[in-house]
Amino acid sequence: MKENGIQDMEQFYELWLKSQKNEKSEDVASQSNKENGKQIHMPTDYAEVTVDFHCWMCGKNCNSEKQWQGHISSEKHKEKVFHTEDDQYCWQHRFPTGYFSICDRYMNGTCPEGSSCKFAHGNAELHEWEERRDALKMKLNKARKDHLIAPNDNDFGKYSFLFKDLN
Question: Which segments does the record annotate as C3H1-type zinc fingers (predicted)?
Fold first, then answer.
């Protein structure tokens, strides 16, 4: 699924159905061509496939500006901009909260908020949060450069706090 840019099981099922129909129609077509000794050429055989807008991240093609704007402003697309498969394996601490400093109460050994605390619990977590913020900023800049994020779009859901200083 990953190699073919398939997003979900519904899309996978639709592609499978199409392939089943194509195999059946190709068998019938090749059988009739063999019988007639002729190959039928259709004008669509020579038509160029044109796609006005293509999102390489999602594998989605859009035929109009309106459809493209709808795609790049969708939550699903924005999540792909910031998320990679490796994210769950390379980070060891909590997701940053936007407060890039160490919790004083944690350092005193008395933070009652635990994992819901807004501040980093130690130098290692703070350092990772800063690395994550930098990595996410790089992803955002690349997406903007590739026109995968609208230039005036600053709504990134749970990632918005990371980019306050960019706006």
Answer: 102-124
What sign does the dihedral 85-89-91-97 (CA atoms) show?
A: positive
pLDDT tens digits, 59-68: 888 888 888 8
Q: Residue 123 to residues 101, 132, 134, 145, 163: CA-CA distances in angstroms?
A: 9, 14, 17, 33, 22
Computed from CA positions of residues 52, 56, 62, 66, in that sequence, does the dihedral angle turn out positive or negative? Answer: negative
Range of the domain at 160: 90-166
CA 97 – CA 95 distance, rounded (Å)? 6
pLDDT tens-digit series, residues 109-145:
888 988 889 899 989 989 988 888 888 888 888 888 8
Look at residue 161 and tell me if it is in a domain: yes
Which amino acid, residue 5?
G
pTM of the model: 0.57
